[in-house]
Amino acid sequence: MADVSLKTTTGDFGVHEYFRGSWGLLVCYVNDFSAVCTDELSRLVKDFHEFESRGIKMLAMSCDSIDSHIKWIEDIKKVSGMKFDEEFPFPIVSDRNRMISLYLNVLNAKCIDEDGIPLPCRAAFVLAPDMTIQLIHFYPENIGLKFLEPLMHYS
Fold first, then answer.
1. What ranges in 66-138 are assigned the alpha helix state H?
2. What is the CA radius of gyration of the chain?
C-alpha cells in the first residue's frame, strides 16, 4: 500500500508511519452515526486489547469531517461502555475528498451523497507489516458486526 497522507482524529500522519512494523486493520464506512457503523466500531473498541495483543493496529475511516468523527466517538464510547474521559483507542480518518476511497477502490457508484459524489462501501483491509494488503473484505450496508468474526480467528 502506498504511503497515503491521513487526516485523523489524532492528527495528520502517513499510513506507513502509523502501521510501521505491525499488522494493520483498516475499516471503511459510508458515514458517521449510522447504527451499524457505530455498533461495529463499538465492537472494535471492546476487542481492541485482543487485536493489540496480536500486534494489530486499527484505523477507521469515513468521508465525514474530523469534527463529526469527534462527536461520533462520544456515541461509540457510550455504546462500547468506555468512560467519557478514556482515550479512544484508535484514530478515525476523514476522507472528505474521497481520495483514499478512490485509491482503495471502495467508492460505490450506486450510493451517492446529496452533492452526487459516490460514497465508500463498507470494507475491511488487513495489512501485513511490509504494507502489502493481505485481505480485502467488502460488504453491503445491510451486513454488520459479522465482518469481525473471521478476522478474530485469522492466524
1. 66-80, 99-104
2. 14
